[in-house]
Every structure is written in C-alpha cells, then in structure tokens.
C-alpha cells in the first residue's frame, strides 16, 4: 500500500488547527515583548514533533530565530544541559555580529557551545540514537563541576534576551520527560524570569511517561502556577478526524471495515495509524516495528510487573484483582506492587475496579510476544476460573474464547453454541455468526461422544447461513446454505430437507444474478412438501414460493400459494409463516392497484410477525408498507413508515439484514428527494463487518448527496469503486450511475456524462431491459447531449450536432419505451415515473434548439409531490429556457435558488446565481456582486486564497493566514487563473469581481 510522505509524526497540520492557533498567539505575544512558555503534553506518536516543526516553520517565516534542542534517553547519569547545548550551538558559530558579541560577552557559555565549526544536526527524535555531537557533549567536563549554576543560568538568559532585541527568539525543547536535573533547573530558571523579552520557550513531553514519581512532575506543577506559562494538551484524534486521517494517508480508497478497524485499533494515535497502514492490504497484523516501540516501554519494569501484564493481555477484557491473583499465581503484596508500577506509568488504567491496558495495541503487542506454551496455559487458567464462577451475561462467550485458545475443544463447542443463542437473543447476529463459524471449525476435532445432543453439522450450517444473511453478508449466507444442501443425505427427513432448500432459496434471493438458481431451490423445497399434510415447514415454503412467483410475474400462482400458506399456517399455529403469507398477499394487492387492501394486509402481517417474533418477516412487511406509499408519491407517509422500519431493524440488531438494508437504502433516497439531507457522512457508511456489496448499496445513495453538495472530489474518489459493484445490485448501478452523470455535468464534462449514460443504458439492456429507473438515467444524460449539440451548432459543426441529436433521440426512445414496457410495482406508472418522463421530454426539447420552457415548467410541476431537489433542478433549466427565448425568468430562478440555498446544494445554488448575474436578475437576499461562479465554481480553498490576494496579500501572507505553505498558495492561484482564463493575479481578481465570485474589498477589511 502506498502512503503519502510522512511529516514528522505524520499529522497534517490542518488537523491541529486549534493547537496551532494557541502557539501562534503565544508567539504574537512574544513579539509584543510579552515573553512566555508553552508546555505541550501528549502520548508518544500523537504529533508533538510535527506541531513543533510547523511552529518553527511559521515563526521562521515571520523573522524569528528558532533554536531547537532535544533530550535523549540516557539512563546512567544523563547528559547535563544537552537540549540547551544543542539549541544554543548555532549562536556560537553565528556570523551575526550582534549574536557573536552577545556570546563573547558571556564566557560562562563557552562550555555549552561548540569549539569550532558548524554544529552537527542532533535529531534523535522520540526514538533516536546518540549522535556524534551528543557524544562530544558527554565527553566535556560537566559545567556544574567548575562553574556555578547561577552564573551559567544568567549567561543563558542574558544571551537570549540580548539576541531577542534584534529579532524574536523561539526556543523549542523536545522530549522533556528525558531531561536531566540540570536541564530541568535551567528550564525552571528561564520560565520564572520571562518578562518583557521577545522570547518564547516551548517544551514537549510524553504525558504517559511522566508518572507520579517522575522527576519532571514536580517541575510541571511548579511551572503551571506561573502566569507566563500555559499548557497545551495534544489529544489523539476523535473518530471523525481519525477516519479522515486514515483516508488521507491511504493512496487508494480502503474498504469501510478496514478504515473502521484501523481507527478503532489505533485509538486515534497518528503514529499507530501510519504503522498499521504500512503493514498489508488488510492492516490486520501488528507491525514488527510498532510492536518493538510499544514493548520497549515495558523493558524497564521489574519481572513481576511484566508477568502480570502478560496475564492481563491474555484476558482480552478488563481483569479484576481477584482474577489476576488466581491466574497469575503470585502473592498479594507482589501483585499490588506490580499493578501499582503499571498504573503509575500509565500502562494500565482502572475501569470499574478492573485493570485494562491503556492502549489496545499495547495489549496486542504483549500478547503477541507470549510463548505458545505460556499463552495456552494462561488461557486454560482463565477458562478454569470461568467454569468455577456462577454464570452470567457473556459467560459462555468468555469460556468459549479461552477454551478455543487453550485448544480445549470439548469445552469450547457447547460454550460456543450457548454463546451463539445468547448473541441472537441480544440482537447481535454478527457475534452469533462468529460463534457458529468457530463451532463449525472445530466440529471434526470433537469426538462424537462429546458433541452436544440435538446439534449436528447440518444445523450449524443452517444457523451460520441465517446469521450471515441477517448481519449483512449475503455471499457467505449463500455459501453456507449451499454447503448444507450438499450435506443432505438420501435418508434425510423430508421436512428437514425442505427447510434446508428453502434457506438456500432465501439466501440466493439477496444476491444479484442468482434468481434462476434461487427459483430452482424453492421449487425443490416445494416438491418435497407438496403432497404432505399441513405443517409449519410447508406453510413457510408456500409463503416463500409465493414471493418468488410474484417476482417472476406470475400473480395468479403467487396468490394461490400465499392463500394456501396462510391457511396451512393457521391450521398448525405457525404465526410467523402466516404473517409472511399475508405480506405477500399485500404486495399482490398493491400490484393489482388496490392500495387500500394492500395496506390492510400488510399491517395485519406486520402485527402477526411481531407477535411471533419473526423479525425478518416484520421488516419485510414494514418495507413493503413504506413502498406502498412511496409508489403513490405520498412522501410524508412513506418517510414515516420507512423510518419506523429502520428503527425496528436497529433495535432488533438486523440493520444489515436483507430488508434492514433495503429500508435504510430507501430511507436515504427518500431523504435525498424530499430535501431532508443528513449532515454527517456516517449516514452513508455501512457497519463494520458487512460485505462490500452491502456497503456499496448504501454508499451509492450517499454519493448523490456528495455531488449535490458540491463535494466533487469525494464523489470522484468513490465512484470508480462503485462502478465495480454494479453487478452486485442493480440499485447500485442506478444510484452510482446517476451520481456519475450529474458529477460530469456539473463539472462541464458533458462528453463524460453522455458516455456514462450510454454505458449504463447498454448494461441495463443486458440485465433488465425495461427497468423503470432507466427513465431517470436517460433524462439526466439527455441534458448533456443537448448541451453538446448546442455547443456544436455554436461552433458551426453541423455534422457533430446532427450526430448528437441522433444519440439524444435514441436515449429518448429508450426512455419512452421503458415507460410502456416496464413493470411498475403498483401496476401503473406512478407520480415519480411520470415526473421523470416529463423531465425526459423537457430535456429532449433542447436537442435541436432552445429548450421548451413550458415543458420544463411541466416537469417541475410533476415533481411537486415532494421531490424538492429535482423540482429545483427543473426550475433552473426552465429559467435557462426562458432566458434563451428572451423571456423573464425571475420566478424560476428565485424558486430554484431558495431550495438550493436551504439544502446546501452548492453547485445548483452557484449555477442559479451565475445565471441570474448574467441575466442581470436580482435574487432575494443576494446581490449580483456577491454571486459566485456557476458551472465550474472555485473550491472553497481557492476562493479563500483569491479573497486574500484581492486584499493585497503576498503568497506567504496568504499561506500564514490559511495555515498552508507558500507553494500550496501558488498551486491554488494557478488553478484559479486556469479556471478564469486569466494570465495574471490581478486579472484573475478582476474577472472574479466581474463574475460575482468575490465581495468588495471593504467587506473583507
């Protein structure tokens, strides 16, 4: 995996904006002769070095002298004044006469400064080695042996004060947790004498290393009481920033579950993130280099402390004192001392009276360092203790875990089965799946006589298939179901065989392109029970088969099967199967156009499913009930019912089951149409552990929001991966294709928009020729075809224009025929279909000349059932058509602008403003001078740069204000000039004002 270059500890400066502002503010005070000190605390790898480096770059660019010194980890005796000797070394060799005179006048400094030549860089960093210059300092006589401390301290303060008269001085001291006593004393002296010097002292230290008895702790408590000293705590990233950091470091998009795993394991520590990313494609293994860094902290601990830490690492959870005493096998006093050592050094923390590693990765490193025999014995000891204590929540899962790791499979198997059942009851199908898979993995290793009664491999496969399906892994669900059918012997009971084949049919139905195989499976299940007496199995098979027959457009047979399933279910008291049959009857009524009957049956089925705790059936009913209102464009009711379904899926742990997924995906699309746009990216992410196809199903809808909000780079990064998932689910193809067309259109790349449209239409014709969603696709694509044709006519290329008109007419014919040949779920084309058909006709009217404004107005009216964003888009195109015909377009522009502004649909808002600006039409609350560009607007960062250039700032000043480098400012300006067609900065500013990209300079001062 390729990574972006590391900067210090790898943290982009922008991620530490708040901390950087505090440091810049401290420097600004120092420039005003308000000397001060800042102490930066943070864990190893959190970004202290990077922050100090950035500060050094900033103050240097503002004319300050930066002096940097670093402490190193030397156990025996230490290096007196090492960081000050390194920091002051440049003064001894400076060619500046002011500096040279200041040094010469203070002979006490002589032994801290190099004897001759330039100082050798001494950059050990947080994990560096002793350099040649450091060894030279070690060889020198210690200053305190032949020079009074006070004289030396006065000399250091004096030279810094004198140099600061000519330019501000910033002294950076890194890794103060390794500082020797002399360094600490000198730092205390300086901090207590900061007055009116142009001097800033900044020190950093590892908070986790400064334990209660650490010599630096006393100094810190003394310094923070001084008015001139402030503290800056550098915390790990929160989940959102950590996710953004991972995605920024990765050279290519990572699967959602990999990103989530890195965020969780790193706990927001940037160094940990980098190391995990550098391992392999999955980032699952703990890198050897990271493990060494983590374990090095533990080497100084006594043997008993290290032993206790190894025991805790095996527990995989917080460990009570009693458990440690029993498993570790050491005395109480020795245990107390070992734990106190680990807690004081911030290796362990106490949570609810139990001990746990402060960093999960440290636990991983300690565990990985165990010898095989040591690991097995400790797991066995934990398992023995768990068996001896009363059972409680999670008891079986813990017993299974430790028994598996200690290779005690006879104990592990029944514990896994119990844990699987408990996980299902708790609404955790993912955990239940893991337990089922672990049970399958050891099944053959457990003697037949030791296997639990009532369970066999076939049952485990059936359970694994079900749990995989309900936890968002349909491919694995189908694989386990196929394995179960292969395991069926000729003597298998008929009803059991039918149940296995039905499970396969349902698992295959969740996958794209397996309908034929799924149909064969359900037919096989039916053959097995067709001549049998009513039973729960027969009722379930009939209910499932009825749903298949409905999908195969055989409504008569579907109705017969559904009615029979209800009858059989009532005869044997199989309420869940009855509910499933009723829901199918409801969907059949909807297809026949009887919405009232459909909703009555759906509600009846939902109630019975809930009574029977048939959760998947209940979710299916809630989905089709929402769809019943959606088909009739009753947007408010549809949103209410789909929200109820999503909530029910979440509370039952079935969020990523087949219909849990469909409910969430439909909710996201309805929110897109209705203008109820989520604020957070989390709405577009699937949960951890789900399959990539399931994650893509949600992401494909979310990318529509990204495009509509103008987050073009984010959308462009995601679309190639979604293109690879078209075949996984046809809805992925429709939503991602829609987004790709609109992205290209907004970027002005109409050729790409037409290419995607034709590619998607050709793909649909092979998969499902007259899918109604195809109307939407060709309607979007026709807008770009018309734009290209108009451009060709403008440039006198009549042949190209005619070819484009032919392309447009083919797309128009496809859309019209789809409206006729397609199969609406409710039997007839609903309001949404008619609205897209109206937009298709409006777009087609612009193929050979200015579009028909009346058709665009009609399309906008067709979307008034609640699709506010699409309606605003139509109003925008209506305004274009009106202006092309020389007619006023104020009402259409105002309507589109109001919606776009309310939604934060920046591309549409900016396009409307640009159109109004060119038409010299005022928009309520917006003056033409404040209107930004339209079709190809500047990014927020480019606009920020241009605003400051307009105020006369230099590139360096712009960079300082925006916390970016001077080179980056130059890159942004180059892009701005290319977009605006300008050859100079001043010309770019003038064009921006003319096009309404910038407000007046007075407004910015």
UniProtKB/TrEMBL annotation:
Superkingdom of this protein's organism: Bacteria
Protein's UniProt keywords contain Protein biosynthesis: no
Entry keyword ATP-binding: yes
SUPFAM superfamilies reported in the protein's UniProt record: C-terminal effector domain of the bipartite response regulators, P-loop containing nucleoside triphosphate hydrolases, TPR-like
One Gene Ontology CC term in the entry: cytoplasm
GO biological processes: regulation of DNA-templated transcription
Region of interest (Disordered), residue spans: 114-133
InterPro entries, per database record: AAA_16, P-loop_NTPase, Sig_transdc_resp-reg_C-effctor, TPR-like_helical_dom_sf, Tscrpt_reg_LuxR_C, WH-like_DNA-bd_sf
SMART domains from the UniProt entry: HTH_LUXR (SM00421)
Domain HTH luxR-type: 931-996
GO molecular function, one term: adenylate cyclase activity
Compositional bias per record (Low complexity), positions renumbered to this chain: 114-124
UniProt keyword annotations, A-Z: ATP-binding, Nucleotide-binding
CDD domains reported in the protein's UniProt record: LuxR_C_like
A Pfam family matched in the record: AAA_16
Protein name (record): AAA family ATPase
């Amino acid at each position: 995996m390729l990574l972006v270059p590391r900067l210090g500890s790898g943290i982009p400066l922008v991620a530490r904006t708040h901390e950087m502002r505090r440091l810049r503010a401290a420097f600004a005070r120092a420039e005003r002769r308000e000397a001060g000190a800042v102490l930066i605390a943070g864990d190893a790898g959190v970004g202290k070095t990077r922050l100090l480096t950035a500060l050094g770059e900033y103050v240097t660019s503002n004319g300050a002298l930066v002096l940097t010194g670093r402490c190193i980890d030397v156990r025996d005796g230490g290096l007196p004044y090492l960081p000050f000797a390194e920091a002051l070394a440049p003064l001894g060799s400076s060619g500046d006469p002011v500096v040279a005179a200041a040094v010469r006048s203070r002979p006490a400094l002589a032994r801290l400064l190099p004897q001759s030549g330039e100082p050798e860089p001494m950059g050990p960093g947080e994990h560096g080695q002793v350099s040649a210059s450091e060894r030279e300092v070690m060889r020198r006589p210690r200053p305190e042996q032949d020079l009074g401390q006070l004289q030396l301290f006065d000399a250091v303060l004096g030279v810094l004060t004198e140099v600061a008269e000519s330019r501000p001085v910033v002294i950076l001291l890194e890794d103060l947790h390794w500082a020797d006593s002399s360094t600490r004393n000198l730092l205390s002296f300086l901090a207590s004498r900061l007055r009116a010097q142009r001097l800033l002292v900044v020190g950093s230290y590892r908070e986790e290393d400064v334990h209660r008895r650490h010599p630096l702790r006393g100094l810190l408590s003394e310094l923070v009481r001084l008015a001139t000293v402030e503290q800056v705590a550098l915390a790990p990233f929160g989940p959102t920033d950590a996710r953004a950091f991972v995605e920024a470091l990765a050279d290519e998009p990572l699967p959602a579950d990999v990103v989530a795993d890195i965020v969780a394991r790193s706990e927001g520590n940037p160094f940990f993130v980098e190391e995990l990313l550098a391992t392999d494609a999955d980032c699952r293994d703990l890198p050897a280099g990271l493990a060494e860094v983590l374990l090095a902290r533990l080497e100084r601990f006594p043997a008993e402390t290290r032993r206790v830490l190894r025991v805790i690492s095996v527990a995989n959870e917080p460990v009570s004192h009693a458990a440690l005493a029993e498993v570790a096998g050491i005395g109480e006093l020795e245990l107390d001392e070992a734990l106190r050592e680990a807690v004081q050094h911030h290796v362990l923390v106490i949570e609810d009276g139990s001990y746990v590693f402060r960093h999960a990765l440290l636990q991983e490193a300690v565990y990985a360092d165990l010898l095989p025999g040591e690991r097995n014995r400790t797991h066995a000891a934990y398992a023995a203790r768990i068996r001896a204590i009363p059972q409680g929540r999670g008891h079986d899962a813990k017993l299974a875990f430790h028994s598996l790791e200690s290779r005690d499979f006879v104990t592990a198997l029944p514990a896994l089965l119990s844990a699987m059942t408990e996980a299902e009851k708790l609404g955790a199908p993912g955990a239940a799946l893991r337990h089922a898979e672990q049970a399958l993995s050891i099944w053959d290793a457990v003697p037949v006589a030791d296997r639990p009664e009532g369970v066999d491999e076939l049952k485990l496969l059936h359970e694994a298939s079900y749990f995989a399906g309900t936890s968002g892994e349909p491919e694995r669900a189908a694989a386990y179901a196929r394995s179960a059918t292969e395991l069926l012997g000729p003597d298998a009971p008929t009803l059991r065989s039918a149940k296995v084949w039905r499970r396969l049919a349902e698992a295959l139905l969740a996958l794209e392109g397996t309908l034929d195989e799924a149909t064969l499976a359900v037919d096989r299940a039916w053959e097995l029970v067709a001549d049998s007496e009513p039973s729960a199995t027969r009722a379930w098979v009939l209910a499932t088969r009825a749903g298949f027959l409905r999908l195969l457009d055989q409504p008569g047979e579907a109705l017969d099967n559904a009615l029979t399933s209800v009858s059989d279910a009532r005869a044997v008291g199989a309420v869940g199967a009855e509910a499933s049959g009723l829901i199918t009857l409801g969907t059949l009524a909807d297809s026949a156009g009887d919405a009232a009957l459909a909703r009555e049956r759906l509600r009846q089925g939902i109630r019975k499913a809930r009574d029977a705790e048939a959760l998947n059936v209940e979710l299916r009913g809630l989905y089709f009930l929402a769809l019943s209102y959606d088909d009739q464009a009753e947007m408010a009711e549809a949103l209410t019912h789909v929200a109820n379904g999503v909530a029910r899926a979440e509370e039952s742990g079935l969020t990523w089951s087949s219909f849990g997924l469909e409910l969430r995906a439909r909710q996201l699309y309805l929110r897109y149409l209705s203008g109820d746009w989520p604020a957070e990216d989390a709405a577009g992410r699937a949960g951890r552990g789900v399959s990539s196809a399931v994650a893509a199903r949600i992401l494909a809808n979310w990318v529509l929001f990204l495009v509509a909000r103008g987050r073009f780079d984010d959308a462009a990064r995601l679309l190639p991966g979604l293109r690879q998932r078209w075949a996984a689910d046809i809805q992925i193809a429709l939503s991602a294709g829609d987004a790709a067309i609109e992205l290209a259109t907004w970027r002005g790349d109409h050729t790409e928009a037409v290419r995607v449209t034709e590619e998607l239409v050709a793909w649909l014709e092979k998969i499902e020729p007259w899918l109604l969603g195809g109307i939407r696709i060709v309607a979007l694509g026709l807008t770009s075809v018309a734009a290209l044709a108009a451009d060709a006519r403008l440039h006198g290329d009549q042949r190209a224009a005619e070819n484009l008109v032919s392309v447009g007419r083919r797309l128009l014919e496809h859309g019209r025929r789809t409206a006729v040949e397609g199969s609406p779920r409710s039997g007839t084309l609903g309001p949404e279909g008619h609205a897209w058909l109206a937009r298709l006709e409006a777009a087609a009217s612009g193929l050979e000349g200015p579009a028909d404004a009346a058709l665009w107005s009609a399309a906008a009216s067709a979307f008034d059932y609640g699709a506010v964003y699409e309606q605003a888009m139509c109003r925008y195109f209506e305004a274009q058509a009106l202006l092309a015909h020389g007619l006023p377009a104020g009402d259409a522009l105002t309507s589109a602008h109001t919606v776009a502004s309310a939604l934060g649909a920046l591309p549409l808002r900016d396009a409307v403003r640009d159109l109004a600006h060119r038409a010299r039409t005022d928009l309520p609350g917006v003056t033409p001078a404040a209107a930004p560009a339209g079709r190809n607007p500047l990014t927020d960062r480019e606009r920020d740069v241009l605003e400051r250039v307009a105020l006369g700032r230099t590139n360096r000043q712009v960079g300082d204000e925006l916390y970016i480098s001077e080179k980056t400012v130059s890159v942004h300006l180059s892009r701005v000039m290319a977009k605006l067609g300008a050859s100079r900065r001043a010309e770019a500013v003038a064009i921006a004002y003319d096009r309404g990209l910038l407000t007046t300079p007075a407004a910015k001062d």
